């Protein structure tokens, strides 16, 4: 004697849609956040930061010329300006990075 099983029914349309949405949400939760270091380096692509970098290089060249070639600034005080520009770059990119990180949380 062969026993017959009841007909197998699948999910209803509503259940299938709910399952799809749940799976889609689970996959979205697994998406990795960008690496913090890479987003910090992206801040150096800002036009203001590029201008500050160019100003720093020109200031460094100028102070080096005064110190090594013309010997008019033997104290080395001219090197404070490029250092200040470098600190301004670090400060501006650091603040932008921190604000972006707070925005994500």
Mind explaining what this structure looks like?
With 105 residues, the chain is mostly helical. Helices cover 70% and strands 0% of the residues. The protein has four helices and no strands. α3 packs antiparallel against α4. The mean pLDDT is 81.
The gist of it:
The chain is mostly helical and 105 residues long.
From the structure provided, what is the oligomeric state, counting identical versus distinct chains? single chain
- The counted number of beta strands is 0
What count of helical segments does DSSP give? 4
Distance between the termini: 65 Å
Mean pLDDT: 81
Task: Describe the secondary structure blueprint for this structure.
Layout: H1 13-30, H2 36-42, H3 47-69, H4 80-104
Helix pairs in contact: 3-4
Q: Could you list some keywords that capture this structure?
A:
105 residues, rod-shaped
């Amino acid at each position: 004697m062969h026993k017959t099983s009841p007909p197998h029914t699948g999910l209803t349309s509503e259940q299938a849609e709910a399952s799809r949405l749940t799976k889609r949400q689970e996959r979205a939760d697994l998406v990795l956040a960008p690496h913090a270091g890479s987003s910090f380096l992206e801040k150096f692509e800002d036009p203001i930061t590029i201008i500050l970098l160019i100003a720093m290089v020109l200031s460094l060249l100028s102070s080096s010329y005064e110190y090594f070639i013309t010997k008019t600034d033997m104290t080395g005080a001219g090197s404070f300006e490029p250092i200040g520009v470098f600190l301004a770059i670090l400060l501006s990119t650091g603040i932008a990075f921190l604000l972006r990180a707070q925005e994500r949380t």
